[in-house]
Predict the 3D structure of the following.
Amino acid sequence: MARRALSAAERVSEAAEALREEKFNARRIELAEAALETLAELGFARTSLRDIAQNSAFTHGVFHYYFSDKLDLICCCVRHYKAKCVTRYDEVTATAQSRDELMEGFLAKLAATLRDDARMHRLWYDLRAQALFEAAFRKDVTEIDKSLENMVWRVASRYAELGGKQPAVSSSVLYALFDGLFQNYLLKQLSNDPEAVSGLIDEVRRLLPTIC
């Protein structure tokens, strides 16, 4: 059945509703940005909406208006942060013309993210661990995990392609290898190990050519 044509008033009403939703979502992102530092510092279990409000320019009531509870806010925060993370290596992957160029570009960005964003990555692993107990987190965590798996696969498959090869393992195995390495060296970095960054880079430099 053909859809009835909307009247001018209905079109205006729909446009206004879409604009309100867009503004609402933009405000949620703004609040999530403000909350990330506190969450990254204190972690899931030790952070309340009141803590977040006290460490931001927004009131407790504002956070309650835009988020149903702490779980809603934290899921929004991590989705927003990880959405930016998963494109971190895309430029070097797209522009590299040799395996060496891709390797060095990838390792430089990998070193920077471990060195500069350790607390944010810690928040991600905290949330992923909580998903074992909190059903509310599982859908988001599963989707984020898949996007990270795809991110690693884009790098590895391009690296293999530049050498006329195919990756020797599946994307899920490859992700498990890289994720395990990264989490291990993240703990070292958070423990102020001066060799954490160089250790991760050395491991990846050895690993990638053996499987790609």
About this structure: The CA atoms of residues 26 and 165 lie 43 Å apart. The radius of gyration is 21 Å. The chain has two domains: 1-69, 86-212.
